[in-house]
Each structure stands twice: as structure tokens, then as C-alpha cells.
Design a protein that fits this description.
- About 5% of the residues have low confidence.
- By secondary structure, this protein is α+β, with helices and mostly antiparallel strands.
- It has 5 helices and 16 strands.
- Helix 3 packs antiparallel against helix 4.
- The structure holds 2-acetamido-2-deoxy-beta-D-glucopyranose (6 copies).
Length: about 270
């Protein structure tokens, strides 16, 4: 005989399965507290926490834009405004991060020309100086023996591209020419001040590449420490609400605005 119970049974199981799946992430895969307890490690970088995130650490465990990746399981990298940098060092105590442009690692003729630009929460350390590379330049008769320094590139198989680099402003009288203004493109890259003197002592593209690999220093916002310490001290893990960019303290008993005491914004799962 026809039984009306049978056709409804699959729906019952689907509903139960849906309820289980919807509730699974918090209980099976862990909540924000446990996911932000996982630290980022890659190559020479070990146990990196807030305000950084990446691989196992979700974005809600750090600042927007402070995502790290691990190329080939070996090379820690950070991409800021479309430019990828190797992360050479992260110092938790001084809030210092040392970066080197990945696209300038092998030579000073990258495929795409892009300036170094920063995002909110990052600032150059005082030991950093910009140098400027000019591309697609006319051949400038060398009037000065020191500056600017010529180099040649073949970008994307294009014809020989003439470039120049300078470690000072082109209005500096030492350059003695504003011909660089007729170059079709330019890129600013930061160097540490000590490397600038090394390059100036022996200006050539090989030495500049070496200096760029040495990297430059940035500091992240002091807000990170002032917000995070009370949270850590109360047994929580620091993070951020991705939508509002507001600080969050993830605790075993819920998510709090400052530390694990007081009224939770949302209770633990
Ligand atoms: C980074 O600093 C926090 C305190 O601000 C500390 O709890 C954490 O262990 C530090 N991580 C490392 C790798 O030093
Ligand atoms: C880099 O910045 C300089 C000065 O702000 C600008 O003139 C130049 O066009 C920029 N280069 C690129 C590749 O965007
Ligand atoms: C610079 O660009 C202009 C116009 O796009 C072009 O006519 C000129 O040949 C370019 N110069 C060089 C050195 O590539
Ligand atoms: C760049 O190429 C030109 C010829 O196209 C050559 O005269 C010049 O010496 C080269 N410069 C460097 C730095 O290699
Ligand atoms: C810079 O280049 C010169 C060759 O022009 C070389 O003798 C010197 O060792 C290089 N310096 C550094 C620091 O690489
Ligand atoms: C949450 O747990 C922490 C310890 O992990 C405790 O100190 C705190 O008082 C708790 N907060 C609330 C609101 O229960």
C-alpha cells in the first residue's frame, strides 16, 4: 500500500543534516579563540601572531591587509597594494617588519613597474630612504661621474630599455640635469639608509639589487600592542571584526570588545 511517510523521510534527513552542517564549524573546526591561537610559521619566521594572519590563521585574527603567505612552504611573503614582498623579519617587541620586494629580487627590471605604497597601520621606520628608478629614458649624456647611474633592461622581450637610478632627488645639483624628467616611467623603492651609502660608493645595478634584497624596515601601529596586551593577559586571543575593523578579544567563553572580562559581544559556541 502507498505510504505517505516514505516521501517525507529524505526531507527529514536533509533537514537534520543541514542543521548539523550549519552548527558544525564552531564545534568541529573550532571557534575564533582556537583558530587565533594558531600562529603563522614559514621558513625563518616562526610563531607570528596578531596583528598578522595567513595560512591557518583566519583574517579575523589580525589587521586588514596584514595577511602573510608561504611560497613553496619556504618563503614568507606579504602583498601590499599588488606588490609582493618577502618578509625577512618580524620583531614583536619593536613592532618592526623587514620587507624586500620580491619583484626586484633577481634584478632591477621587473615585468610590471609598480611603486611601493603602504596601507593603513604601517609606516616607514626612520632608517629608510627612497631611491628612484627611471625606465624608458632617452640616452642621457653623462655629465656627472657619480649620478645618475645607467642600467639596461629587456622587459617582456621588449627592446633594450634604458634606465637610470638615483639615490637623491633629481633636483639635487649633483645630478646637474633634469633629463630624467623625460623618462616614460619611474618607480620608488625604499632602502635602508646604510645600504644607500653602499650603493652610492659603488653604483651599479648588481649592487643595487643586493641592497634591495637586504630590505627596509616598517613599523606597525602601536594600537596593536595597546589593544592586544589586556586581552592576552586575561587569557584571550586578539583579533578584529573584519567588517567594522574593530578590535576583538576572543575568549573561551565568548567574544569581547577589550578583554575576557565584562559583557561578551557574543557568547561562546
Ligand atoms: C608577540 O607579542 C605578544 C604580546 O603583545 C605575545 O603574547 C606573543 O607571544 C608574542 N609573540 C612572539 C612570537 O614573540
Ligand atoms: C610612481 O610614483 C611616481 C611619483 O609619485 C609617479 O610619477 C610614477 O608614475 C609612479 N610609477 C608607477 C609605475 O606607478
Ligand atoms: C615615451 O612615450 C612616448 C609616447 O608614448 C613615445 O613616443 C616615446 O618613444 C617613449 N620614449 C621611450 C624612451 O620609450
Ligand atoms: C646599455 O646599452 C647601451 C647600448 O644600447 C650601451 O651603450 C650602454 O653601455 C649600456 N649600459 C650599461 C650600463 O650596460
Ligand atoms: C659593488 O660593485 C663593485 C664593482 O663595481 C664591487 O667591486 C663591489 O664589491 C660591490 N659592492 C658590494 C657591496 O656588493
Ligand atoms: C571568561 O573566562 C575568563 C577566563 O578564561 C574569565 O576570566 C572571565 O571572567 C570570563 N568572563 C565572563 C564574562 O564570564
Amino acid at each position: 500500500m502507498y505510504s505517505p511517510v516514505l516521501p517525507t523521510k529524505p526531507w527529514f534527513f536533509i533537514t537534520v543534516a543541514l542543521i548539523l552542517i550549519l552548527h558544525a564549524p564552531k564545534s568541529v573546526f573550532g571557534n575564533d579563540y582556537s583558530s587565533c591561537s594558531r600562529l603563522f610559521s614559514c621558513g625563518s619566521l616562526e610563531d607570528i601572531g596578531y596583528p598578522f594572519w595567513g595560512t591557518d590563521r583566519p583574517e579575523s585574527c589580525g589587521f586588514p591587509g596584514f595577511g602573510l603567505t608561504c611560497r613553496g612552504d619556504q618563503v614568507p611573503e606579504m602583498t601590499i597594494e599588488e606588490v609582493t614582498y618577502q618578509v625577512l623579519e618580524i620583531n614583536n617587541n619593536t613592532r618592526n617588519i623587514r620587507l624586500a620586494r620580491s619583484d626586484y629580487w633577481d634584478n632591477i627590471c621587473p615585468q610590471y613597474l609598480r611603486n611601493t605604497t603602504l596601507i593603513s597601520g604601517l609606516a616607514y621606520s626612520s632608517d629608510t630612504q627612497d631611491i628612484k628608478l627611471y625606465y624608458k629614458c632617452p640616452s642621457i649624456p653623462s655629465t656627472s661621474s657619480v649620478l645618475p647611474t645607467q642600467f639596461n633592461c629587456s622587459i617582456n622581450g621588449a627592446d633594450n630599455i634604458i634606465g637610470y637610478f638615483v639615490t637623491r632627488s633629481i633636483t639635487d645639483p649633483l645630478i646637474g640635469s633634469d633629463s630624467l624628467g623625460t623618462c616614460n616611467n619611474s618607480v620608488m623603492v625604499p632602502l635602508s639608509t646604510s645600504q644607500v651609502s653602499t650603493v652610492e660608493a659603488n653604483p651599479n645595478s648588481g649592487n643595487l639589487t643586493q641592497a634591495l634584497r637586504d630590505g627596509f624596515d616598517l613599523q606597525w601601529s602601536a594600537d596593536a600592542s595597546t589593544n592586544c596586551e589586556p586581552c592576552l593577559n586575561s587569557g584571550g586571543q586578539c583579533g578584529q571584526d573584519i567588517n567594522s575593523a574593530q578590535f576583538r578579544c576572543y575568549c573561551t567563553n565568548g567574544t569581547f570588545p577589550n578583554n575576557c572580562n565584562g559583557t561578551p559581544l557574543s557568547p561562546a559556541a
